[in-house]
Amino acid sequence: MLGRDELLRRSLVTLAAAVVVTGVATASVRKALATYVFGILAIAGVLLPDWEFFDRDFSQWLTPM
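^ thats the sequence. predicted structure below, dont judge the formating
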């Protein structure tokens, strides 16, 4: 199984490839930028959160574990 750092690295490289392909295929910087922003938000939403931390009751989110 891949470590979190390796998974993040591969995701960012894949996103970079998708941005280049989108930009070249559509000849649109705006669409390439939209692809980049969507990809970064998707990666941040899936890979970065500490799910163990958020798995607690909502009232406990503001206190350290």
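The radius of gyration is 16 Å.
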